[in-house]
């Protein structure tokens, strides 16, 4: 009964935008204090990647403080690597805040509404999760950022318990992509029977990885070079793994 009521409330609330903040006039040329986000992640994200959304909903203060600093940042004053790390951290922080608004949720089926209707103003610019992901991150041409972003699903990448930092960004993105591909619960790259199974994340964002099946496989090979011969077979069958829609919530 309570879950049904929560679902009905969610459906009605997400018909309209939910504003995390109001437009900000004063801007600062330095990134937010990542110590705040580090504290939030350490407190509410478990070692296995599950998230205590109930805890965030009950104690949103630190996360809101971080988002307020994100909102007041002069992003154009940041160096390119700083900017990418900034947007990844902003996305993940906003995602946690957005999901906590409608806790409890059982699955990620409602996420299209969260994706586009929860709005954070960075300066005067209103941005949804989809806008940050597509306009600020994927538009940069590096698909590896997808493995750094939270999806809320048990099948999605583990975005970790540490904020991303500019100084080791390339190394960290490389590691995230490789670890995601090595996880047999998300991808099965054993082509001994002439077929592999890839996460549906690759299917959803297939345009990000190139316009063809070959381009997608070359991306996989770049992360797992030892599989090059097997994955370049012309008769290789590519299937999509079942996506677990259950919320990655700590119980």
Explained architecture:
There is one protein chain. By secondary structure, the chain is mostly helical. It has 2 domains: 2-153 and 160-178, no CATH class; 183-240, no CATH class. It is built from 11 helices and 5 strands. The strands form 2 sheets. A 3-stranded mixed β-sheet has the order 1-2-3. A two-stranded parallel ribbon has the order 4-5. A hairpin with a 2-residue loop joins strand 2 and strand 3. Helix 4 (61-71) packs across helix 5. The longest helix has 22 residues, at 80-101. It starts with a helix and ends in an 11-residue tail after the last strand. The model is unreliable at 1-14 (pLDDT under 50).
Unreliable spans: 1-14
The helical percent reads 40-55%
Instruction: Write the element-wise H/E pattern from the N-terminal end onward.
Output: HEHHHHHEEHHEHHHE
Give the overall shape.
globular
Number of strand segments? 5
Query: What is the domain total for the residues?
Result: 2
Distance between the termini: 20 Å
Question: What's the gyration radius in Å?
Answer: 19 Å
Strand order of the largest sheet: 1-2-3
Structural class: mainly alpha
Mean pLDDT: 90
Strand content: 5-15%
Per DSSP, the total helix count is 11
Instruction: Characterize the main sheet.
Output: 3 strands, mixed
């Amino acid at each position: 009964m309570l879950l049904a009521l929560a679902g009905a409330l969610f459906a009605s609330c997400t018909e309209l935008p939910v504003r995390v903040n109001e437009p900000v006039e004063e801007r600062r040329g330095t990134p937010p204090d990542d110590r705040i986000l580090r504290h939030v992640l350490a407190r509410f994200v478990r070692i296995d990647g599950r998230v205590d959304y109930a805890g965030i909903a009950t104690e949103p203060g630190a996360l809101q403080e971080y988002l307020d600093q994100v909102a007041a940042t002069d992003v154009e004053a940041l160096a390119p690597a700083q900017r990418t790390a900034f947007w990844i951290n902003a996305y993940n922080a906003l995602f946690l805040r957005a999901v906590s608004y409608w806790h409890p949720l059982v699955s990620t089926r409602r996420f299209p509404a969260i994706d586009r209707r929860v709005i954070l103003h960075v300066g005067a610019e209103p941005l949804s999760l989809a806008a940050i992901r597509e306009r600020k991150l994927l538009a940069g041409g590096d698909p590896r950022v997808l493995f750094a972003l939270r999806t809320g699903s048990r099948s999605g990448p583990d975005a970790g318990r540490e904020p991303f930092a500019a100084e080791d960004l390339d190394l960290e993105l490389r590691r995230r992509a490789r670890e995601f591909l090595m996880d047999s619960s998300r991808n099965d790259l054993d082509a001994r029977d002439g077929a592999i199974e890839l996460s549906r994340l690759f299917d959803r964002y297939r345009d990000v990885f190139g316009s063809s099946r070959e381009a997608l496989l070359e991306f996989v090979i770049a992360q797992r070079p030892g599989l090059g011969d097997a994955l370049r077979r012309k008769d290789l069958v590519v299937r999509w793994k079942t996506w677990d829609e259950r919320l990655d919530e700590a119980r």
